[in-house]
Amino acid sequence: MSTTTTTPRSDSRIRTFQHAWLLLALVAVVTVALVRVVTGADQLTATGTLRAMILSACPILLAALGGLWAERAGVVNIGLEGQMLLGTWGAAFLAYHAGPYAGVLGAAAMGLLGALLHAVATVTFGVDHIVSGVAVNIIGLGAIGFLAKAYFNDLEGGGPRNLSGYQTLPRVTVPGVSDGAAWLADRHVFGISDVAALVAAATTGVSLLTVLVVVLVAASAYILWRTPFGLRLRSCGEAPEAAETLGVNVIRYKYVAVLVSGALAGLGGAYLTMVSSSSFTVGQTNGTGYIGLAAMIFGNWRPGGIVTASLMFGYTDGVSLLPSGGIVVHALLLLITLVLAALALWRLRQGNLRSALTIGVIAVAVLVWYLSTDSVPRAFVGMTPYVITLFVLAVASQRLRMPAADGKPYRKGQAG
Amino acid sequence: MTAPAAAVVLTGIGKRFPGVVANHDVDVSIRPGTVHALIGENGAGKSTLMKILYGVQAPDDGTITVDGETVTFSSPTDAIARGIGMVFQHFMLADNLTVLENVVLGAEKLHGIGGGARREIRAISERFGFGLDPDVLVETLGVAARQRIEILKVLYRGARIIILDEPTAVLVPQEVDALFENLRVLVAAGNSVLFISHKLDEVLAISDDITVMRRGTTVGTADPATATRLQLAELMIGEELPSPETTESTVTDVAQLQLKGVSVFASDGREVLQGIDLTIHRGEVLGIAGVEGNGQAELVEAVMGMRTLSGGTIHLGTEDISGWSNRRVREAGVGYVPEDRHRHGLLLDAPLWENRILGHQTRKPNVRGLFVDRKGARRDTDRIVGSYDVRTPSIDTTARALSGGNQQKLIVGREMSGDPVLLIAAHPTRGVDVGAQAAIWDHVRTARHEGLAVLLISADLDELIGLSDRIEVILRGRLVGEFDPRRVTAQELGSAMTGGGEAA
Amino acid sequence: MIRRGFFSLLPAVVAVVLAMVVTGLVIALTGGSAGQFYSTILSVPIPRVSVTIVNQTAMIAISAFAAAIAFRMNLFNIGVEGQYIAGSCAGAFFAGSGLVAGPAVIPATLVVAVVAGAAWASIGGFLLVGRGVSEVISAIMLNYVALTMAGYLVNRYGVASGYTFTTNPLELNQQPVGFQVVDGPYQVWALAIIAVLVAIGYWVLINHTRFGFDLRASGASSTAAAASGVDAKKMTLIAMALSGGVAGLVWMPAFFGSVHKFGIPENFQSGLGFTGLAVALLGRNRSIGILVGSLLFAFLSAQSNDLQSVGVAPEIISITQGVVVLAVVVAYEIVRRLQIRREQESVARELASARPTAEEASR
Fold it and tell me: The domain B242-333+419-498 is classified under which CATH number: 1.10.10.10, 3.40.50.300, 3.40.50.1370, 3.10.180.10?
């Protein structure tokens, strides 16, 4: 329809925006490399560590993306956990009987089913979104426990609460890039090797489902922010009454958003049963849906933000499973100290003395912790995403921008 | 009177809600290329009628004819397709989206959501002098600009019939003039405007035809060229204008409330009250006149202990109450009739007797020590229902079920309980029927006679002039003039409220 | 009055029946026998199971009252789960520490559990009041942190017991004797009585005190409450702390009644927080409603254990419970709308003698 999509003004705005991001990425790489050299913890950015990060980040990212869809349309979906659980079962069931690709579809379908329940309750009947989400989670866990016993108990490789022996998705390696990056990563060159390790991790033996995750993130960002459909969907989360007066069928958009949300969460379940591991167990998500929700909030309801948050949470989650986890997280303490110190200085420059002081004290405490120990207990590693999210909420809740009508009940015909 | 080529004809429209008839036998005919005013009191059924015309609600009876064709609207989309656009009183905008996104929403097919739409918005904005940049976030814009976005939204969809619901309620006079200028250009371009208002001066200034509504139906039409304010007002009210006039003065020389140099900052750092000095004596009603949003709400909240003072002192009798909590202020004998009774005055889903306790939950007869005294509260609710004529089946009825007038009578009765020394009444008769209005005025007068000091905030100048012993005008957080209600006219007050000749 | 009672009971009954039907359908659709499900669930419980039901009822009820206190103020305390983990962990460590000898340890431990639960809940309260962080979001985070922290503390400072770690077990003279209601070695836990006390306390506090009125007013309309002199921030903090304090007690009956030590996951019963939340919704935050709802949920859970023998996973009962919650909320909303309509009509009749008004229509 139109060839130019931006005016000179917003064009330049976008460019400075991108420059800021590039600069930020550069600073991040240098800081991380610095911490690696100072601490001597080379595992901090080893290819294996970063591969673990990607494996852990993807299901979180899928859940977060699901949350993004629902909340952008104004429906809070804390049922993500339950929808994800349903997805794990759907993936295992269909993968076992009809192959890995059917498994992926099965996971999405089961997630969608859980989301349908949530949509009917919240959108059609106006049930409080949290109440419905809690119910969906209860039902989801109950349902897969029941279904696993009903359908997996008598299978070969199955049991009342688990299933294995199904095919998983193929993995791809980008020839050339993979080896080159791996070689470079082993040289331990300041900064460059750290980035190379990331490239190596992202190009070696990557599951097709991981590729799909990348595609889904890009597609979601495009659909939600660059299409009329996305504009309408977001308007339902910002001002549903206004959307209604302009002829937008708010109910329908909310349904679509919640269903997509559930399907994405379901795919997250598939990731857990088919990529992160190769077997199904009841309760496999272990809170990933909630971490996804946290990542979405931490990412400020924006695609770029939730990717960053998911990678961060994926990192801590991933390293906690590695043998070197304690040491890596110990090194992370130094990184956290640096970040906090920077934050405290920034607050000081803003003239917010109290906040600067509070953050400064925390920074010192973390530094003391770093200096006085050699390793961090594994339990602490696991709860890092939650603590970080709490901290971010406490410090920056005013800067977070959730959709204006998020979680509010909507009834047709109330406009004006 | 009805021209054959009428843009819109509404015939015999009726709409019922559980327990109420919102509209019945409504007939309106709008000529193309004119501004048609629809006037009526609050609650006369204007808003319901507009929702019907815009397809938000479906009528139970009657027909709608647009350009000679009978139509039925099942949603706003149908109305939009017929060239009808509506600007709601409460703006329908998403703060977190840009002007462009707000405008193209729902009409993406017309010019896309990118460059084409941006060009079209710029073109319309220029043609009608709206001065809107499509790429700014709506949250950064002021009220007048938001209203222009609403009108632009309607024009963008090619509407030729534009409904404006109380468009001037939130505007300062200069903005009203600018709006009228915009409307004249619109009408000159062949569009029709349906202008809903209860501000008679504005109606007479802008409209070509006038239809009057009362109690859910149309009761007559008038020609703005010949009609007077008084005639319109009597058509609207249907009887002689009730006069709120007080008789002899009961003012004493005992100061009951005294504000000295009171200043208040808003959360965004703006100074919303600057150096307010005022005194109310026992037996005196002090009226505060002003365009809404000039600091009236903050003044009330400052006295009620709901806002922190940045400067100055407040004395109740001889006691310094600056910095007291709301509860302590109330316990000291201050009654409070809030501006928005649904948000601040009532627990809508609680029974009346629990609403009797609200705001008085530390005092007899509602409580005994730390416990709620159900019997006492219920007995006293019965008393209020009786002596304030609250029409209700029982005191166990929820407040929500009552009509606005009866809700307000309950609140007034409650706030007059326990021998208050000061009553703060913000728009005490807003949105209540004429009968309740007269009753509330009577109660204020009686209490004043018994020595009550009253701070009266109202947008209804007749109410202010009729009830007050003295009127102060508030403008941009400052008291800018004192008037004697026996001598002042509404015109003089209006001029002072808008800063006289001074530029805003 | 009879109609009113009818209206408040009917939705709950409909919801429970509906949930049972849905569960039966799910079982039938997956090739199981719905008939066996019903006959197992609805059979008369054997004495051992009856005692379990009573004990579980007590814990679920305490949890539900904790949630209800917050609900009454429109706060959604899904953090009950984390708060009772905090209370249980702190209480068990204290009891096992030997600081207080003999039976006196019981009241002292209860105090510790209340304080720990209240403190944990207050984190969410402060984040909400001070920083505007939704209590639901912070609770999700805090629940996980509580679970992980408790696990860590027990592993670090507890004693080895087989393959796992626990806190020091209670001395024999610190274990109260339960109520012998059936023959055999099964007793109703002594501290199940807490549930009754909490129920009475809740009823008096919410319905008959000034504080309760302020709390309910804040929940019904925060703006009207503020205008009536309620300090919203203070109320929020108190309500969260109170809710958390009660939550801290949830597991105490089991601790003193049979477990006597704390360790995750073997020597602890998790999930009661969410069950309590569901029961609070089912019981409409009313004392009697909550007690009946707790009994129902405890009954369903206890009876579902026998489903193993007919080849159905006991988890199926979660579906029943989840559907009950959804259905009851929907049903109450429908009834609420009906009641408003009925009241408006009755008010309109009252006014019919006077003139008609279009007031409500435009409001």
Answer: 3.40.50.300
